[in-house]
Amino acid sequence: MLTAEFIDTLFDAELPEPSYWETCYPPRDLPPGAIVTRFGPSPTGFLHTGGVYVATLGKNLAHHSGGSYFIRIEDTDQAREVAGSREQFARAFKYFRIESDENDSNSKWGPYEQSKRELIYHTYARELLRTDRAYPCFCTRDELAQMTAEQTAAKLQTGYYGSWARCRNLSQTEVTNRIQLGNPYTIRFRSPGDPSKRVEFVDLIRGRIEHQDNVNDIVLLKGSDQSPRLPTYHFAHVVDDTLMRVTVVLRGEEWISSVPVHLQLFTALGFLPIPYAHIAPLMKFDGASRRKLSKRKDNEADVAFYIDSGYPAGAVLHYLRGLANSRFAEMTFEESASSALSLSDCGVAGPIFDLVKLESISREFIAQLPTEEALESLLTWSRENDLELSEILSTNLPLVRRIFANERQPALQRKDLAKWREFRAAYGLYFQELFPPVSDPSDPRFAPVERAMVVKLAKDFADSYRHEEDKEAWFEQIRRLAAAHGFAPTAGQYKKNPECFAGSISHVSNAIRIALTGLKQSPELFLVAHN
RNA sequence: GGCGCAUUGGUGUAGUCGGCUAACACGCUGCCCUCUCAAGGCAGAGAUCACGGGUUCGAGUCCCGUAUGCGCUACCA
Questions:
Q1: What is the ipTM of this complex?
Q2: Which strand B nucleotides have any atom less than 7 A from protein CB atoms?
Q3: What gap in Å lies between CA A173 and CA A175, rounded to an integer?
Q4: Which of A180, A368, A415, A525 could hold A363 in an S-S bridge, CB 3.0 to 4.6 Å?
């Protein structure tokens, strides 16, 4: 066992005692039952859809209980950090309304980046050394890899335990010597685990879970040759969530296996364990099998996919809530946005993230959006993702407003847009800049109406055109036009006696449609003509 | 290999103490409406509730086993 004096030489002489941090971070003054949750993304790339999933649930939980939700950047792996991810995160947090309630300037429980909490971890690491619950380990990565290979070859459990834990009982003299030689070292936890023991704990989503006890002497503090000298996830989780006074740890189910270690750490540090809620990960089909939605393989795993395509946040969030708990899927958008999540009602199997379903929800979402909100949403999206469209829209604002008022009025429920990126294809016909007019009467799109007929129809339509304000009256002139050229004036008549006519009214209106819009499909011609 | 978690139509789920002729939404097919596309209306196909045992008058539901999938087994989170 190392002496207290020796242990202190391993750390900064000014390093505070635990009592200091504990007074810095008192429990929050919150109503009874209030829940504090946190979301801890790592800046190792883009924000994962699963991150938004967990974050929005955590925020819901906190807010509906009168508690607090915060984001803590878990940047303890400096080697894997990707430049620019923090900016990407900020954009995504804003878009999906999962911004932190707390930050370094409005709260005393910060800092909210783990790399800035270095001293806190050091204090507690020193504390564990002092009580002999931790020890310095000089094993190199190569040695560790070698050890794992041997264990695998011998079909033994891999890890740093038992006789494999070579640095577990180093004498103070050995430790001193190796430090003087300049050997870098980590601080490892002296696990009190008993391999024959099983631990039991209650998960807020899954109920009782049983697990083999942890026997691994996991790393607490990473290499002494690094600066800042940061903790592993396990250690940071226990220290931070305790000091930051988190009351429910909501995280992915991949952490279930680590709970025994975490429980040991809470005990070793004299902390009270925090209730866990392990949520199933979003899945994805890959051929016949399913797998976790992957950052590498699936572009819908990157939240930028939704932002750039212009899926409204409200639609995505609604879908995500429904995935977690199907009760939400049955609700209206307003209800689901304002209802409290119940952890025990959450599913335990990883749901398949289905883009088709999202599109359906998103179409409905955009369709029910009040005109002004839809307009605002479209303009915001185009400003950031389609500058050309943005300019066309802003120079034609009255027209855009009219289109939205006529076509996008919620009562019509025209569900033709799942995302704003589709606006060009669906509504470009209203903007001269966005479609090439069809002027060639032999254009194949007019088929089966023949060239000569196209010319006649177009000429007559233009010559006799009257801008009627009533929809039926307006379309009546198309019917007259059709009848004048031997086409059936209604689809019903053509259907009954196709041999009596040159064609159906639909052929005529299609010819007009194409001439007018360049498209084979469009909203009602009456609306086209009036915008 | 060890350990954990999961498994209800194509997809997501509901199915509280066993009473199921297994429900809802999306998707799919057909019809109706209709100037086209949507939307809407109507109808339909699609599930021996992963498999095998057991308990029971009765099992999607309880128990045991198997399979499959996912995860953990890192100085990644």
A1: 0.87
A2: 1-8, 11-14, 24-27, 33-40, 68-77
A3: 5
A4: A415
